[in-house]
Amino acid sequence: MGKKTPSINSSSTADIAFLLLCYFLMTTTMGSQTGLSRRLPQMPDPNQKQEDIKINARNIVIVKINSSDRLLAGSEPIDISQLKDKIKEFLTNPAEDPSLPEKEVKNIEGYGPYAVSKGVISLQNDRGTSYRAYIAVQNELVKAVNELRDDFSYRTYGKAFDKLNEEQQTVVKAAIPQNISEAEPKDVSKR
Question: Following DSSP, what letter does each residue of 72-121 receive, concatenated?
Fold first, then answer.
């Protein structure tokens, strides 16, 4: 008579797999999704005079993406390749153009007085805007701010923004704020 091969008792394998699954679900930490950080502009004072609101319109550029993924910055159509430079000019206002944002001299802790732009970028997209176009525009807006921060970092500290320590980065963020306001999607093409 031949030898009988012993079989493995597999009746508790499912129980062990279930316990392992439970263990990993309880011990694994999920990375928190931080998303894109935005600092929204302050709500206007309801007691503010109408003339002041009109004057402050120069501090806002409205970037619109319509349902055909066409881009408007202000009232003029623009190619996405030109958006970053237009935003950089808007935020720096190098020629002190009265149609571009005002600057407010602020005393930045660790730096001193600096003329900070009051510019706000308002991003509006249509319900039909593609996700690809929306992210591409987001990237260009953030890239414009990041390049301005790098310029300031090199002028002040002699190195790029991401090479600075936390205290220096706080100074740069105060001098070059990232004020990007995102409106709820709507029918941009009708406006």
Answer: EETTEE--HHHHHHHHHHHHH-TT--TTSPPEEEEEETTTEEEEEE--EE
Domain boundaries, the chain: 70-182
Q: CA 174, 91, 41, 102 torsion: positive or negative?
A: positive
Q: Which residues have C-beta within 8 Å of that of residue 138, sequence separation ≥ 6? A: 36, 123
pTM: 0.68
CB 150 within 8 A of CB 90: no
**Distances, alpha carbon 123 to alpha carbons 16, 81, 129, in Å:** 52, 17, 12
Residue 2: what residue type? Answer: G
Residues 6+ apart with CB under 8 A from 134: 65, 125
Beta bridge partners of 125: 65
Give per-residue pLDDT as tens, 140-189: 999 999 999 999 999 999 999 989 899 999 999 999 998 888 877 666 55
